[in-house]
Amino acid sequence: MQCPSAEGPAFLVVKAYPTSIYGNDYALNKVAVRLVKIRIWSNDETRGNTGRGVETVTRKLQAVKSVARATRAADNQISQGNISEILLELNSLVGLVAVKKLIEEIYCFVEIQKKRQKEKLAIEPLGLHMIFKGNPGTGKTTVARILGKLFKAISVLPKGHLIEVERADLVGEYIGHTAQKTREQVKRALGGILFVDEAYSLARGGDKDFGKEAIDAIVKGMEDYRDNLILILAGYQDEMNCFIETNPGLRSRFPIQISFPDFSSREMLSIADLMLQQRQYFLSNGAREEFLSIIEREHKRHEHSGNARLVRNLIERDIRRQAVRLLPRSSTLSRKDLMTIIREDLEAPIN
Ligand SMILES: Nc1ncnc2c1ncn2[C@@H]1O[C@H](COP(=O)(O)OP(=O)(O)O)[C@@H](O)[C@H]1O
Ligand SMILES: [Mg+2]
Fold first, then answer.
1. How far apart (Å, rounded) are the C-alpha atoms in residues 148 and 168?
2. Superfamily covering domain 93-260
3. What is the pTM of this model?
4. What atom of ligand 1 comes closest to residue 145's alpha carbon?
5. What would the mean pLDDT of 303-321 be, rounded to a whole number?
């Protein structure tokens, strides 16, 4: 009898894994197979020994299975650690209480469906395409990126990357061009999320506009790659509501709708603290007060100023101003001086 080759037992291990409806246990299986092969080659008994027959094969198989079990347990642990980190990242975002709650719901739903599948119970179709409604700078792209990572960690998507596109990336200039451009973007997003920003603009030109062709190609992509692609359509609240109303087929295809409200002044101050902390700066007490009053003035000037992009622009400007203030006395600066943004750095009016 031939000595068992690496392929023999490894193949059996692959068969021993349940195949998930979520489609990408395949990648884990491949890792397991690789590890199993290495283990077999480092085991003396398997090299060129042809004399022990069935008993040896059985022992090899048991060894292979136990390596596979250990690999699977290790994979589970890595993925659990990953999930906690991703949920922590989500929870460290300021505000967005309803958004966080909904994402937690989606996460629990997917995990329970997986457990039900293991018990051979009926499972709900996942239907995870979404509509994000909110003004610019309210965290839509940030949350979509975190969702991609989460979906990868819980095996809903094999890659979990985010491809962000807008009308110009999808709509072409002549008949047939739009479908081709859109298909290319769908292909780039396979295994992850296709995030269409200002999606309502695809319906703007009416039936004769190529935008409609892009919507059709997106819908086709969703159907063709059901287990391998999640679509998120994003845009201003009112425009997105109108877009969904005028395209009734979309409502059932995008069962999850999430609203991203504008941030309050206090939330914007917390976002500033967070952004500065990430850059190893902080606001002095006087600067915090000034920051809040700048934000409140902005709220009075613009209806939709409650956004984190404004905060980012402000703190980046303050960091530059701090540098201008510090450079003339750069030989005497302490670590704390280099980190502190003071009231004076904020005081000039916003352009
Ligand atoms: N809730 C939040 N907490 C902290 N930072 C945030 C939050 N929401 C957005 N940001 C930051 O604000 C900036 C703009 O957010 P983004 O997700 O691009 O907004 P949108 O896609 O809605 O225009 C990013 O730098 C992001 O990290
Ligand atoms: Mg965005």
1. 23
2. P-loop containing nucleotide triphosphate hydrolases (3.40.50.300)
3. 0.77
4. 17
5. 89
